[in-house]
Amino acid sequence: MAALPERARPDRRQDSTFEVVLPGQLPAADAVLARASTENFPVASRILPRRIRRHLLAVYGYVRLVDYAGDEAYGPREGLLDLLEADLKRVYDGTARIPLVRALEPTVHECGIPRELLGRLIEANRRDQHVRRYQTFAELLDYCVYSANPIGELVLHIFDRARPELVTFSNRVCTALQILEHCQDVVEDFQQDRVYLPAEDRVRFCCPEQDLARPAASPELQALIWFEVDRARRMLDEGTAMVGRLSGLGRLAVAGYVAGGRATVRAFADAGHDPVATEVRPSKKRILSEWGRVSVLGRAPHPGRRGSERIRSAYRQCEEITRTQARNFHYGIRLLPGPKRRALSAIYAFARRVDDIGDGELPEEQKLRRLERARGDIRSIDIDSEDPVLVALADAAHVLPIPLEAFDDLIDGCEADVHGQEYRTFEELVTYCRRVAGSVGRLSLGVFGASQPDVASGRADALGVALQLTNILRDVLEDRCNGRVYLPTEELDRFGVRLDLVGHGMLLDGGAALDELIRFQARRAEEWYAEGLRLLPMLDRRSRACCASMAGIYHELLQRIIADPRTAMRGRMSLPGWQKAAVAARSLAGMTP
């Protein structure tokens, strides 16, 4: 923060209002105007005439000064806002004293800007001092009437085009830009105890405020950000009609603001809609590209259903979830051609959501409600959903014969986990495995395609069972610590294993009996692999490579468990990245497990 130079400091002898300001409470004009280069959009492009640029920079300087007083200034911010309002009144008789406020005088008089419009920006920052949360989107829209919409109307005044119908379009664009800025700044705002993501939306996406304090966005927060960004994109598309009704310099300037918003939407997609771990900023190249497109078209691009940016963004979100959370499956999924890779990522993203509900920390009743809602989401899936995973999954199911009803089995299995169900016999355990993993095999087969669908479905189911049995053997200790036992009770009794825990979270069982039980179960899993891998010859080359890679990684884990059963008892096992990559490479070369 820079101190005001002596010549810029208010004359306290003439007005006692200024006595509340201390040197350094307001930044220097140059420091404020320098921030124009960091905005999402071109504030005052050099291709515009000097007179227009001067007016645009005057408005920008005033807007940013007011924001500084409400967001960053030390000391009594309410007093500073009162000070700015008092000086704003002086603008209209030519006696303003604060440099950035005084710079507005020529713009106000030459462009006929009403004081009420500039005053709304001060009111928005007054609200920020008291309102820290917004319960509904309607409340946030009302805030934007004061914080964002005046800016677009000010620009229209500068170009002498502040007509009611254009102001309506402008308000849509400005509200969209404000929403995008809120999404970019979620962490910074949260650190100042402000949350602009409406509470009703956070509840809808099961996203608590605590997610804003994590080092990276949770899947729930990513879905919420996608929703808010998509909402802003639709507003931008509606408001872009304003560009087509303008001409000359006005059209060029306004197209730049719209282009900045569109480029920001794309930047969110590129960042996986994670503004927590990533600073989301549009590139200059992207802004220029969008600027040219919007300037020429005079409207938002009109993509077809299949090529919709919204659908592409939803798929990118699913692929990001897969990349960051499917540590084993990702190596296989990326071997698929683009359309199949995206479809399988959508399947994984929804399956992961269901698993996370079952494995989460919510009370049992809330978990069951969320699982039932997930079941309803699948049964009423729609391309126009507000959820990116559902958008992508609906599109994938429209193109490919994906048996979405298989998700019912997956949800049934997760409900069993929530209830803490145990399994008396191996046959009962296999039923569970078919639900939680065989279902994913059948869903994946809808993406892969197969030469003999009916036969292939059974083999895909068997491969899913093999992978789930491997998971169970790998996670015996972790599951027991979480209060779950999947190994059949009949076989625990037969081998004399109790799976009791000692105080430091280790299994009391550690002798030959446990080793023998683990190897016995592993040999059973091998039989399921033998049946499941018979699926591979029925798939095309790329699908075969994907399936073989995923199966190969898990089969390698199973081999390690057989070699040393106690390895799994010491903690979660995993293959190093280089070895997973090697398995994927062998699979692509046709060297199946």
TrEMBL record:
EC number(s) recorded for this UniProt protein: 2.5.1.32
Upper taxonomic lineage: Bacteria, Bacillati, Actinomycetota, Actinomycetes, Pseudonocardiales
Keyword Transferase assigned: yes
One example of a Gene Ontology biological process annotation: carotenoid biosynthetic process
A Pfam family the protein falls into: SQS_PSY
Official protein name in the record: Phytoene synthase
Keyword Lyase tagged: no
Xref: InterPro entries: HSQ_synthase_HpnC, Isoprenoid_synthase_dom_sf, SQ_synth_HpnD-like, Squ/phyt_synthse, Squalene/phytoene_synthase_CS, Trans_IPPS_bact-type, Trans_IPPS_HH
Keywords attached to this entry: Transferase
Organism for this UniProt entry: Halosaccharopolyspora lacisalsi
Coiled coil: none
UniProt superkingdom: Bacteria
